Amino acid sequence: MPQILQGLWITIQATIYGSLVSFALGLVWAMALRSPTRWVTWPVSVFVEFIRNTPLLVQLFFLFFVLPGWGLTFAPLTTGVIGLGLHYSTYTSEVYRAGIDGVPPGQWEAATALNLPRRRTWIAVILPQAFRRVVPALGNYVIAMFKDTPLLAGITVADMLFQANSISATTFDYLEPITVVGILFVVISYPTSLLLRALERRLVR
Amino acid sequence: MTGALWQLFFEGLWITIQLMVYSAALAAAVAFGIGLARTSRFWIVRFLSGVYVEFFRGTSALVLMFWLFFALPLLGWQLVGIWAGTLALGLSYGAYGSEIVRGALQAVAPAQREAAIALSFTPWQRLRKVLLPQAVPEMMPPFNNLLIELLKGTALASLLSIGELTFQAKLARLSTGQSAEIYGIILVLYFAVAFVMTRIMRVLERRAKASVGRAVPKGEGWFSRKLPVEKQGPEALATGGKP
């Protein structure tokens, strides 16, 4: 059990760092996709579409085995965070897009009327209004990411599943460790999703 | 890249596709079963199906797969790898799908239900002749997304040593050491399958919409970002985020 809790801590760390990476990158994709130049939108949309439609596990393997070959050697956890963050950024970009689309067009027009520069329009007018709408949806992806962290066991990150496996390998008892891990996931993700629903009711109306 | 290596990949691709088809069939059955159960008149049916959904959505598909493959034998059942994979994927993606079914059923205009009651249809007739024909076209886009998620989920089965695409890639990597090429190629293969699936689903969606006389959205590009592509479509549906 202490070993699994240790794994839980790694799982939580991976989720938090991965979320931060995906929140930041997702915003970058979302804003790039609204660029007026096709030379920006096209490559970004192909990239986003490619990442979305291929398995996270294979992406993790790709990073894990290929990055060192390019002279970039990271700890497994870092590689995992990069993989999770990159994968989920393609989903969060969609959330930001919806959030930005949800800002009434009048707000853009007002910013133009006030002769605000493009950057000020984004920072002072559009994004603050968009963020309110995106928080609950981003939260859903944090939960989804939390449930995807066991994949990191595949690249030797000592998360919960990895710990459960190593316990099983020494005790030959598979039933208990894996059951405990499965239940821990439910115990954490279900209340979180309830919280998010409550938050959503409050923020979005 | 030699011919033998390509053959290895195509064998793996074939198993991946089989795994996807089987688990999609199971997931569809679970989705409709549980989705309908959640709209039941009896609270106990609604409650139990709700517990099912929350449990399978709450836990990780990979952990479920490991449990079915490694822990279940200790309770006296040994599943062949591909069936453990199918069961885990079907049960957990079915739980997501059931939310899509429920959301789409609830999105049918209440007057339609009332009209069917006024015509004294039985509940079964009501479902089959009025509700489902209108709900199914609504379900198509989120089901499309879910199918892609499922395809990506099949890669998890490689960790149970099922010889699907990702596992074959692992073998190929061990024998040649060309990580970048091999993982690059299978990423492209996965993308190709996902791309084909999306196109097929869009054709089906168009047909389903046309069959109930709904306007068909046109002019989407190949990389269109305009369709609703929430990973957890059900959440959005359930909380009124419907477009």
Detailed description of the structure:
The complex is a heterodimer of chains A (205) and B (243). Chain A is mainly α and 205 residues long. Chain A has a single domain, classed as MetI-like fold (Orthogonal Bundle), CATH 1.10.3720. Helix content of chain A is 80%, strand content 0%. Chain A is globular and about 70 Å long. Chain A starts with a helix and ends with a helix. Chain B has 243 residues and is mainly alpha-helical. Chain B has a single domain, classed as MetI-like (MetI-like fold), CATH 1.10.3720.10. Chain B is 74% helix and 0% strand. Chain B contains 9 helices and no strands. Chains A and B meet through helix 2, helix 3, helix 4, helix 6 and helix 7 of A and helix 2, helix 3, helix 6, helix 7 and helix 8 of B. Chain B: This is Ectoine/hydroxyectoine ABC transporter permease subunit EhuC. Chain B: It is a multi-pass membrane protein. Chain B: GO terms for molecular function: transmembrane transporter activity.
Secondary-structure topology with pairs:
The complex is a heterodimer of chains A (205) and B (243).
Chain A: H1 2-33, H2 38-52, H3 56-66, H4 76-101, H5 105-113, H6 118-148, H7 160-171, H8 175-203
Helix pairs in contact in A: 1-4, 1-6, 1-7, 2-4, 3-4, 4-6, 6-8, 7-8
Chain B: H1 3-37, H2 43-58, H3 61-71, H4 81-107, H5 110-118, H6 123-153, H7 165-176, H8 179-211, H9 233-238
GO molecular function (chain B): transmembrane transporter activity
GO biological process, one term (chain B): amino acid transport
Keywords (chain B): Amino-acid transport, Cell membrane, Membrane, Transmembrane, Transmembrane helix, Transport
